[in-house]
Specification:
15-stranded parallel sheet; two-stranded antiparallel sheet; LRR_dom_sf; leucine-rich repeat; alpha/beta; repeat; ubl conjugation pathway; Leucine-rich repeat, LRR (right-handed beta-alpha superhelix); Leu_rpt_41
Length: 731
């Protein structure tokens, strides 16, 4: 008791994994890291447990014993892990994951066949709708499969389709059957409810399902299901519900077993048949009749009845085997049919960003395979992240429609998705979402290569719709090449009024756009709670622009704690730099690749040092990529001299052409100041990434060894031979 087991888990990693983990210096819990990596490697066949005598035990199940410790899981490539997780032998593994898993990631996905998608839909339904997954992230999917992408997005949003639907299955899973049984039981007289204790089932709330009720639900389903000719076995039918799992619709417990569209039961069917159509098929449930391949087979649905499909097998085959372009077209025609959720901004006082070709205009037509009105609503995730996943017009319309009612969504990250003018479509969905009083969205991050709308216009659009946002990040690399490098944006966005907001963190990366304080000023005035501001790659149109910005920050944002400039030329703004360094409120200042010391004089460097020495509120100073060099680094050691009142804890001097001899001299001078102060110093962290420490390994090692006795040092093994001639001036 009281002894750390971290060294044991670290040694286990070396013995079993036999690899060096990436970013090992940032690993805080080796137990968690080992167990999650161990589970993933066994699941994907990377690790052979028979090769280790400690693991080669018939009584030891690698997946079962490690699953209860897994909080995040990555599925990649052809989704090989889905087959293993949905196998009947791994029922308890899946039950453990449903209670422990919080983050589900998809990386480098490839197109998958119908059977894999079928199993994936069941896995997502179990882990999200009846589990604890709160975050879904997708990475690096250069050519996304439209059907698969929409499937993941819609299940993440909590949608589950009955009868007609992309995710149709012949029978509900055990949890959905219990939910249906509850709603049916609640409609009966108290005298008829002898089979189920009212205390166990209170209006469909999330309670544990007893085996008896599950068995009775199975029996009832088998008796009433349409076309059922044999009982079925399910890997899910006997599972107990986790207390945090939702069994029924978010909109209300009784709605989970009825079709919101009001579609009547088919002739000869019953209401249970319709509720049995909920797309909650248990894992590896054997179908009542084998699905035949759609290839070379006559479709029993005539073309004139395209809007409705009576045969579920034909519908399922059609959705998953028809050509991609046809499926995408059909999905698109039906995804935008959900009434108010697809609202345009046309009638809004803020203008009509969706009036472009990529707008989210409503389209008529009968209810189709992806109508959100005909879908049941279950538990949804609170974080959605899409990194390097191209979104087409159809996919953006789908996502916009999902976002419009995704009230549980708290964090939305869209990074390098090639949005173009489709960004207006997503803004339409976000605008509709903002009208919900129970909307939880607090973090929005949008980044892309080309900007179709000026950064400040986009910031104003989002903030005008979501004044309750806490974090907003807008980042673009280049101006829109199709607009002559001068995107005009939408006048309504620029004129949108911003109510008083709760914004605490604002990050803007300009695609080499001029920074006009006049455009930023309304945002700053509305964000009096702002604590962090980051401005990246902005061009200062005139020498007075930075002065105007600092004046606006002093007047409008008295709570600002962190200010960051990246790739902004501050070589000719020495006065403003000194004003920032003496600010009594700021606790962290970053000048990253700002050419701060490009034409620096000795007097300016001395003023910087003296200003920081007198500032007792500044805790972190980051100066990466500013051509510091050896002699300026040595001079910075005077910040910690005996007469200093500085509270500086962190110093970042990465990418500053620092050589081993300069670092050693800095270390010796720092040691002298510490000795003069009686060993008391607040300096705790020094970052040294991408410096020229490989030019004299022995000297560098001595300097690092002595520095680590004073503070925590973070560096890397960067090859300085790859450095460019940009740093010659400080050699």
């Amino acid at each position: 008791s009281g002894l750390s087991t971290q060294p044991i888990w670290r040694k286990l990693w070396d013995d079993v994994m036999k690899t060096r983990p990436p970013n090992s210096e940032n690993i805080t819990c080796w137990r968690k890291k080992f167990l999650e990596t161990f589970f993933s490697n066994v699941l994907h066949g990377v690790l052979d447990v028979s090769s280790d005598w400690r693991l080669n035990d018939n009584d030891f199940s690698p997946l079962l014993h490690s699953s209860q410790h897994v909080t995040q899981l990555t599925l990649c490539n052809m989704l090989q892990g889905v087959i293993e997780l949905t196998a009947e032998r791994n029922q308890r593994v899946l039950e453990n994951l449903a209670g422990s898993l919080r983050i589900l990631k998809f990386r480098h996905l490839l197109s998958s066949d119908q059977s894999i998608r079928h199993l994936l839909v069941l896995l997502l339904h179990r882990l999200i709708h009846h589990g604890s997954v709160s975050q879904v992230s997708m990475y690096s999917w250069p050519v996304p499969d439209t059907v698969l992408l929409i499937l993941i997005l819609s299940v993440s949003a909590g949608y589950w389709h009955s009868g007609k639907g992309l995710m149709y299955h012949s029978s509900p899973c055990g949890f959905c059957r219990v939910g249906n049984a509850q709603s049916q039981e609640s409609a009966q007289e108290p005298s008829e409810m002898g089979r189920c204790d009212e205390r166990e089932w209170s209006n469909g709330e999330n309670q544990q399902a007893s085996p008896r009720v599950l068995e009775e639900a199975d029996t009832q389903e088998e008796a009433n299901a349409c076309g059922a000719d044999a009982p079925q076995s399910s890997a899910f039918s006997g599972l107990r519900s986790h207390p945090s799992q939702n069994l029924v619709c978010e909109e209300g417990s009784s709605e989970a077993s009825c079709d919101p569209t009001g579609v009547k039961d088919p002739p000869g069917g019953s209401s249970c048949c319709l509720s049995g159509r909920l797309s909650c098929h248990p894992v590896l449930r054997k179908p009542r009749r084998r699905l035949k391949s759609a290839v070379g087979r006559r479709r029993r649905c005539p073309r004139q009845s395209r809007g409705t499909y009576d045969n579920p097998e034909d519908l399922y085959d059609f959705v998953f085997t028809i050509a991609k372009e046809n499926a995408s077209e059909l999905l698109h025609k039906n995804i935008v049919a959900e009434g108010e959720s697809a609202d345009n901004w046309t009638s809004s006082s803020t203008g009509s960003p969706c009036s472009s070709s990529a707008g989210c205009k409503k389209r008529g037509g009968s209810a189709g395979i992806f109508s959100l009105k005909a879908a049941h609503r279950f538990r949804s995730v609170s974080t959605l992240e899409l990194f390097s996943v191209p979104l087409t017009g159809d996919t953006c319309r789908t996502l916009s429609n999902l976002l419009s009612s995704w009230v549980s969504l708290e964090n939305l990250v869209l990074s390098y998705n090639g949005l173009g003018d489709n960004i207006f479509c997503l803004l339409s969905g976000l605008r509709a979402l903002s009208r919900h009083s129970d909307c939880c969205l607090h973090v929005v991050r949008v980044s892309d290569v080309f900007s179709h709308i000026p950064c400040m216009d986009l910031v104003r659009c989002i903030l005008s719709a979501f004044p309750r946002l806490h974090t907003l990040s807008v980042s673009f690399d280049l101006k829109n090449q199709l607009e002559g490098n001068r995107p005009e944006g939408n006048p309504s966005c620029r004129e949108a009024e911003i109510p008083e907001s709760c914004l605490e963190q604002l990050e803007i990366r300009f695609p080499r756009e001029p920074l006009h304080t006049a455009f930023l000023l309304p945002v700053l005035k509305a964000s009096r709670s702002l604590q962090q501001l980051s401005l990246d790659s902005a061009a200062l149109p005139c020498p007075q622009e930075l002065e105007h910005l600092l004046q606006a920050l002093r007047e409008c944002n008295p709570n600002l704690k962190k200010l960051s400039f990246h790739d902004v030329n501050l070589a000719d703004h020495q006065k403003e730099v000194l004003l920032l360094l003496q600010d009594p409120i700021l606790q962290e200042i970053t000048f990253s690749f700002c050419r701060l010391f490009e034409s620096c004089t000795t007097e300016f460097l001395s003023e910087i040092i003296n200003t920081v020495k007198r500032n007792s509120s500044l805790k972190s100073l980051k100066l990466p990529g500013n051509r510091l060099g050896n002699h300026r680094l040595v001079a910075l050691a005077d910040i910690f001299s005996e007469d200093s009142s500085s509270s500086l804890c962190q110093l970042d001097v990465s990418s500053n052409c620092i050589k081993p001899d300069g670092l050693l001299e800095f270390t010796k001078k720092l040691e002298g100041h510490i000795q003069q102060r009686g060993g008391h110093i607040k300096f705790t962290h020094l970052r040294l990434f991408q410096n020229w420490l490989d030019q004299d390994v022995e000297t560098a090692q001595e300097a690092l060894r002595r520095l680590k006795a004073v503070c925590s040092v973070v560096n890397d093994t960067w090859d300085s031979s790859q450095a460019f001639a940009d740093y010659i001036s400080v050699m």
